[in-house]
Amino acid sequence: MRASRYLIATQKETPSDAVVISHQLMLRAGMIRRLASGLYTWLPTGLRVLRKVERIVREEMERAGALEVLMPVVQPAELWEESGRWQQYGPELLRIRDRHGNAFCLGPTHEEVITDLIRNEVNSYKQLPANFFQIQTKFRDEIRPRFGVMRAREFTMKDAYSFHDSADSLQETYDVMYNAYCRIFERIGLDYRPVLADTGAIGGSSSHEFHVLAQSGEDDIAFSTDSRYAANVELAEAVAPGGARPEPSCEMQEVYTPGQKSIPAVNDFLKADPAHSVKTLIVLGECTQGETPPLLALVLRGDHDLNTLKAEKLAGVASPLQFAPESRIAEELHCTIGSLGPVGMEIETIVDRSAAHLADFICGANRDDYHYTGVNWNRDVKLDRIEDLRNIVTGDPSPDGRGTLEVRRGIEVGHIFQLGDKYSRAMNATLLDENGKEQLMSMGCYGIGVSRIVAAAIEQKHDSAGILWPEAIAPFQLAIVPINMHKSDRVRDKCEHLYEFLRSRGIDVLLMDESKARLGAMLADIELLGIPHRVVIGDRGLEKGVAEYKGRADSEAQDFALSQLETVLLEKIDR
Amino acid sequence: MRASRYLIATQKETPSDAVVISHQLMLRAGMIRRLASGLYTWLPTGLRVLRKVERIVREEMERAGALEVLMPVVQPAELWEESGRWQQYGPELLRIRDRHGNAFCLGPTHEEVITDLIRNEVNSYKQLPANFFQIQTKFRDEIRPRFGVMRAREFTMKDAYSFHDSADSLQETYDVMYNAYCRIFERIGLDYRPVLADTGAIGGSSSHEFHVLAQSGEDDIAFSTDSRYAANVELAEAVAPGGARPEPSCEMQEVYTPGQKSIPAVNDFLKADPAHSVKTLIVLGECTQGETPPLLALVLRGDHDLNTLKAEKLAGVASPLQFAPESRIAEELHCTIGSLGPVGMEIETIVDRSAAHLADFICGANRDDYHYTGVNWNRDVKLDRIEDLRNIVTGDPSPDGRGTLEVRRGIEVGHIFQLGDKYSRAMNATLLDENGKEQLMSMGCYGIGVSRIVAAAIEQKHDSAGILWPEAIAPFQLAIVPINMHKSDRVRDKCEHLYEFLRSRGIDVLLMDESKARLGAMLADIELLGIPHRVVIGDRGLEKGVAEYKGRADSEAQDFALSQLETVLLEKIDR
């Protein structure tokens, strides 16, 4: 591409309404422009990147055996009523009426449409498994669209849906898709993690999110230093500490702790380590309707945090989790919250694995202004039920037994999901099995935020000068920068020759052929755009027989002999 | 592609709701499925064709120097209010409101969005000309969607918009786009015509439609047998007959024609040729408001039809054209409509070029039940004003002087348009010219109905067995059909080998590898799908050392020696 026939559209000023760096850089690099809240036009530079992501996604989906289809953006309400989501889905579902008053929505996802298609096209187990994908415009009416294309209202998504006659077949395709997703993010060149995810309200046996690691991510991800294990922090299992619990070494004593009610305060006062104390939280238990729910005690190590998701999934615990009102604690346990402890506690007590491993620990004495020290399980307090109650922390052992956990922030760019029969049941998508018996299909669904990947890649890699693209999705692979091309035929000839040579090798080249452009401005644009390689050609260099090369991430430029320039560039460019 | 991993989804029955052949065949060949009125899902076979059309369009747009962008489907009302189209556009513009109550529309076209973008990005003549295109989902809320994807509500369109600092620059890009469009339709392999079109209400100096010729087309197109001239029948110029008007050869006579009021009736009665008679139509002339419009007479040959568009563009004629009420004709001209004629007519009379060429003709005598015969211009009746008033008919000379005109039906698949400053004026899109003076930009716009091309290609070429694709957009180029593959290793090996060989040469092959599929059913599917080439491989042929080849349009299959099969196929397939 010649800059003289291109729209570079870079901006020096950082737009005031852009908060995150990817949004700022996409505007400054002339990749996108805002049309309205959450609606963006992709300019040529942005679209080049988007198309490269799309191509990799498409190739890997096809390699994984998925067939491409294209479903409408506008979907009839009837199907959403069948699945029950017309009512369930919040105001992100933009509901519209056509000129005849019929109700439609702009599709945020296509489970209903594909299920309707497949229940009509497929009726025998022989036609399954089948897997369909599309790369298509989606709409979600976000209440507060932000972060540019990261959380836009209109966006490009790859969504795939698979159909099966058994759970095994679903698992098989799920695994194929898991691997296809890994290849996609590897080929794009991102530092990513497949992360065990919550299956949420849908149930289903398995779900993974794919996160691009970036400081600005909205999700905390725990992953192993030594294995592929990764999970949302909320879901990562906190395994029991290794080895046996230490033996008691001192007697339990009641100590006076006047006015000390929080873990830090008590431990400061007693000059102790919070990791050797426990905290006791009172929550509501399950009960049949109309009854007063019983109280339950949850006991965690003083330095650990309760994981609500884990707690509310436990038998006997009310879901969603509810803390007991102070009045009931005062009335039934006869003390205030800051002095609670498991010793002598008469309600059911669930102890976290790490807390259960302590010896000689500190806890509240269930009497205001008093704590116990030197408490030991079984000797001083019963230990009936041990569960995983807490959030993991950096340094915890990995649940798969390999390495320890680290916590980093991630941006979700993909999600794969075993839906089971949620939609096929609601919409009566059945097939005849080998015995001619009617059964519900099983479904999987697999999403990738194609436009979001573009922003996530920038969040992951940029510097003060601009974007650092992974080579596979850079808008151009190399820029040729002539110095005073309009004054020097020699410079022009050399640049034109190099341009044609590299293009003939299938390389995406940008020739900065705008006459009178200043060198500094051109180099700044190239860095802002994140073009991985650039060559500067000028009369002074040509006299010495050299051209100047610099990789986008290099700290210094380097001269190469003109005689070797083409060979060097072909080696440096990742093709 | 292997049929065993593909969704062929053919249907034997012709769907009852499909009227036109392309709609029927697209449903039967498993290309599309209806989701709701005017909304279609593209199945794998349909999408393969759509993508091939898209690719050709994209390549030629890029070759023509246009830059690809991607604008949102959802557009804010404000911009349409600025251009005035929020009010002007009919109910085809689907107006919606988001969760905050803000007004938007689903874009049927993107003049407003691109003009808004360019007025912000471009401010100097040095940045122009610029030309941007997108291939994108459009929505038009048709009152009665029909003919499948031919007139769907949601469809894929390529739209391009160019910006200029002068009319010359606009004309230059217009010509480039004209040629790009010709290359696109040639590469796709369609019989098409670029057709002079009406610039309608927008004005502008030039507009061409691109029509695919097909009997089922909705538009009548006149085109020359011997040149590239083509125009909508409504716009084609009817040139004056060659040579001088014949000399009068008989006297004018008033003849009694009791009750004969129409041209056929009068000519039957007088045993004359309508081509030697004239008809006289009374219309309203222009007038200043409040005045009674004067009457005007339009005189045409008896066998010709008035062209309303041409008439209402003439000076002195009311636009839109209005016929005079019978009461005024009776009152002012003293006769009824069936007896009107130019002889002695006291109101202004405009004579069509062909009528003006007649001698010894018949016309009404302005007296009920009487006509004149042997009438001659200038001798019996004055001839002040001659104009082109009529629709052309087959056999008319071509306006460019080369060949004669034929009329065929066409399907509009493209439209290019010089918009001038319609949008830049309304939306204040200005630039600074060479002298630093602010001026309005000039614009061109260029559309192609990408999804409509798919249907139009089928309308143009099909037979009783199914579709005949142009090779460039066929879903597959070749099908390999094994006979009893599941029983014969030899057949399987030969088919697999041929499949891999052709794929390695970049050919789109469909291997019919579904075990137990019947040969007749497979061949019927291949013909229905319109795959241009197919090879049948069976044990009996292999024993004789041959395979059977048939081109989709061939009447007979042909055996080829296995030793030459690959060479023969590579020759036959258009690559």
Automatic annotation (TrEMBL), chains A, B:
Principal localisation: cytoplasm
EC number: 6.1.1.15
Domain of life: Bacteria
Reactions the enzyme catalyzes: tRNA(Pro) + L-proline + ATP = L-prolyl-tRNA(Pro) + AMP + diphosphate
Record InterPro entries: aa-tRNA-synt_IIb, aa-tRNA-synth_II, aa-tRNA-synth_II/BPL/LPL, Anticodon-bd, Anticodon-bd_dom_sf, Pro-tRNA-ligase_IIa, Pro-tRNA-synth_IIa_bac-type, Pro-tRNA-Synthase_IIa_type1
One Pfam family linked to the record: tRNA_edit
Aminoacyl-transfer RNA synthetases class-II family profile domain: residues covered: 33-470
GO molecular function: proline-tRNA ligase activity
Keywords in alphabetical order: Aminoacyl-tRNA synthetase, ATP-binding, Cytoplasm, Ligase, Nucleotide-binding, Protein biosynthesis
Annotated localization: Cytoplasm
UniProt keyword Signal, yes or no: no
Signal peptide residues on this chain, from the entry's feature table: none
NCBIfam families cross-referenced by the UniProt entry: PRK09194.1, proS_fam_II
This protein's domain notes: Consists of three domains: the N-terminal catalytic domain, the editing domain and the C-terminal anticodon-binding domain.
Subunit and interaction comment: Homodimer.
Function: Catalyzes the attachment of proline to tRNA(Pro) in a two-step reaction: proline is first activated by ATP to form Pro-AMP and then transferred to the acceptor end of tRNA(Pro). As ProRS can inadvertently accommodate and process non-cognate amino acids such as alanine and cysteine, to avoid such errors it has two additional distinct editing activities against alanine. One activity is designated as 'pretransfer' editing and involves the tRNA(Pro)-independent hydrolysis of activated Ala-AMP.
Similarity comment text for this entry: Belongs to the class-II aminoacyl-tRNA synthetase family. ProS type 1 subfamily.
Full protein name: Proline--tRNA ligase
